Amino acid sequence: MARCIFFSAALGFALLAGRPASSQDVSQIVCGSVNGDSKINITDVVYLLNYLFQEGNPPLCLAESTPALDDGGCESFSHSSVESCRHSAKAGFWAARANCATLGDALARQTCLDAASAELDTALGVCDAQLAARLRFCEVLATYPDPGIDPDHFVGVVDNPYFPLTPGVTFVYESHTDAGLKRRNVSVTGETREILGVECVVVRELETLDGVVVETSDEWFAQDVEGNVWCFGEHSLEFEDDKLVDVDNRQVGSDGVRAGICMKAAPGIADTYYHQFAPGHSEEIAEVLGVDESVTIRSGTFDGCVKIGTSSLLDPEEVDYKYYAPGIGLILDANDDDGKDDGDDDGERLVDLIADRPTGRG
User: Fold this and answer.
1) pLDDT values of the chain reduced to their tens digit, one per residue, 362 residues
2) DSSP class of residue 141?
3) In this structure, which of 70, 71, 180, 323 has its CB flanked by the most CB atoms within 10 Å?
4) Spans of all domains in the chain
């Protein structure tokens, strides 16, 4: 009888102690304090009992290696992001496991569960690879990008010699893919869009695959007084079989999107920076690999080009090599780094420039 009374009292206490504070500050979580009150005592044991036997809330303690939130530290962002990635992977596993449970045949259930476990291992591996890539980048950049946009620090034109955006100019790019011939028309409009008080140049893109429209987008750029060109986001529409299948809107100042650098005023070897920063969606970094490259494409050879390697922290194994010619801009986006348009990959090259602009020799 005494045991029953004790257990009932403990259970009642558990139901109360098992609830985290309503205004939880995750930056103050102490590992071991599973109920999130930053103290380690008997209430943590009760919280665990409530979780295990009464379907209470799961432990709130973060991984021991996770640093406390600080003033924009790159490592804090990296560890928080990987925890989000891992939780998403595990949520996918449990959803798949629930589906497996509905199968009547034991062998089918086990096969389903094995597949779900394999997918979980793969997903967790991707999370770990992202963390490693982010931490490597943290050695170069101490904080995530927060340029502190000041409208007075920007000018009304984009005339960086490696990234000129003159209204009325259209760049035409082509790439040969397994799916067919991809063509991308990039037109510098005479329109502007104000973002955080900055007047941005609107660049409109139309992408086709074997003549069929697959994507349209508006992208926004602005140049600061030093001559650096900044990416302020984009709005894109993706089509499949003439039907709209996806809309992507990423604008600086919303949903954690920060301005990234499209082209530095004076690129220097080993310069490394964020090219795009939309947490969890587009975390692209760029590194200047060359500043006096000679690049050959089908329309000719261009000297004095800037070579930039770009990669995504979300898919760190993939690296693209972009080449920018002075007075023109992007002329080649390749999968290899030899600076030659050999036509044996699905890299993108400039094939036409609808404007009175310099052309290559040859």
Assistant:
1) 444 443 444 444 444 444 444 334 444 445 666 665 557 788 877 777 777 776 666 665 544 444 555 555 677 777 787 888 888 888 999 899 999 999 988 999 999 999 999 999 898 888 888 888 778 777 766 545 555 789 999 998 999 999 999 999 999 999 988 889 999 999 999 999 999 999 999 999 999 999 999 999 999 999 999 999 999 999 999 999 889 999 988 888 887 788 889 999 999 998 988 887 777 677 788 899 999 999 988 888 999 999 999 888 777 777 889 999 999 999 999 876 665 555 545 588 898 888 744 444 54
2) -
3) 323
4) 1-61, 72-144, 151-354
Q: Which residues contact 97 (CB under 8 A, 6 or more apart)?
A: 113, 116
For tokens 């950049």, what's the residue? 141
Which is nearest to 59 in space by CA: 18, 10, 16?
18
Name the DSSP letter for residue 158.
B
Q: Hunting for tokens 């591996």 — which residue is that?
A: 125
Q: Which helix (H) or strand (E) holds 10?
A: helix 2-17
Six-digit token string for 142:
């101490």
CATH number attached to the domain at 151-354: 2.40.360
Q: Which helix (H) or strand (E) holds 116?
A: helix 106-138
Sequence-separated (6 or more) residues with CB below 8 Å from residue 173? 183, 184, 186, 330, 333, 348, 349, 350, 351
Q: Which of 39, 48, 60 is nearest to 13 (CA)?
A: 48
Q: From CA 250, how far away is CA 164, in angstroms rounded?
A: 22
* Pairing between β-strand 329-334 and β-strand 198-209 as defined by DSSP bridges: unpaired
Closest among 161, 115, 168, 120 to 291, alpha carbons compared: 161
Q: How far apart are CA 130 and CA 317, in angstroms?
A: 10
C-alpha closest to that of 7 among 41, 44, 54: 54
Instruction: Classify burial at 321, counting beta carbons within 10 Å of its beta carbon; exposed 0-12, middle 13-18, buried 19 or more.
Output: buried
Token readout for 261 is 């650098």
